[in-house]
Design brief:
By secondary structure, this protein is of the alpha+beta class. The protein contains 7 helices and 8 strands. It has helices at 2-20, 51-66, 94-105, 108-118, 160-174, 205-216, 219-229; strands at 38-46, 70-79, 84-91, 122-132, 147-155, 181-190, 195-202, 232-242. The protein starts with a helix and ends in a 7-residue tail after the last strand. Residues 1-21 form the signal peptide.
């Protein structure tokens, strides 16, 4: 009996270091953000009878706003929502955005020449903070003009650790010759969580329709999409035309 007890004590001593060496389970839900730069998505809904006037005013006065921070793109939504505009603003940090907001509140020209006239034309405003996903960066379209598509995916809870690779594979399968041009892929930080966006460029709405039909018969694309949709709750899209003052055209 003493020999057996001594053996068990020795076994515990031998097993203890191995157990202690086991790695801890990571609590991370995905790649960590490596920088503070983020993109604010804004969607404004306009009174139907004020849509033309709002776009004209914005075209004339947007320079008062871009004097304070960088505008990435400004679009008028044509399909997937009427009488709406969508725009993306870039900020280096939350403190920079706070500073911009403070400066705008003191900019008399911005307030009197634009805000006071534009706000009555709107029915609602929405915003969302997004980061570029680690494997994406903003790209210019091959040429000016064309149509942009913003595809938004509401993924199931769990974060990029659960669905990130599948989402990347599905998106990049479409970012190939003969398909659309991926301008950027984004992951939401403030707003709806577990939401990702893909911003695409096409030569025209007709070319985009042709690409959709092509994708349905492309085994490579179909397989990647099937692996992704098991993590998907819902999705929506908008087809948009860039405004004349938009940096991305």
């Amino acid at each position: 009996m003493l020999k057996i007890r001594g053996y068990l004590r020795s076994a515990v001593v031998l097993l203890a270091p191995a157990a202690a060496a086991q790695p801890r389970v990571s609590l991370s839900t995905g790649p960590q953000q490596k920088h503070r730069t983020f993109y604010e998505f804004r969607t404004y809904s306009i009174h139907p009878d004020q849509n033309t006037a709002f776009l004209k005013l914005t075209n004339e006065k947007i320079h008062l706003r871009t004097a304070h921070s960088e505008l990435i793109g400004y679009w008028s939504i044509e399909y997937g929502g009427l009488n709406k505009v969508f725009h993306i603003w870039k900020y280096d940090s939350y403190s920079q955005r706070a500073g911009v907001r403070a400066a705008l509140s003191q900019d008399s020209s911005w307030i009197s020449e634009y805000v006071s006239k534009a706000i009555p034309m709107l029915t609602s405003q929405e915003n969302e903070v997004n980061y570029l996903v680690p494997w994406s960066h903003l790209q210019d379209p091959p040429q000016e003009g064309g149509v942009y598509e913003l595809v938004s995916f509401q993924m199931r809870p769990g974060g990029p650790a659960v669905w990130g690779n599948a989402f990347q594979a599905a998106v990049t399968s479409h970012d190939a010759p003969g398909y659309g041009k991926l301008v950027g892929a984004f992951n939401s930080e403030c707003g709806m969580l577990n939401r990702v966006h893909a911003l695409w460029w096409f030569e025209s709405a007709d070319q985009r329709a042709e690409v959709r039909h092509k994708a349905h018969t492309d085994a490579r694309v179909v397989a990647a999409v099937r692996n992704c949709v098991v993590h998907l709750d819902s999705q929506e899209n908008k087809l948009m035309f860039p405004c004349s003052f938009s940096p991305l055209k």
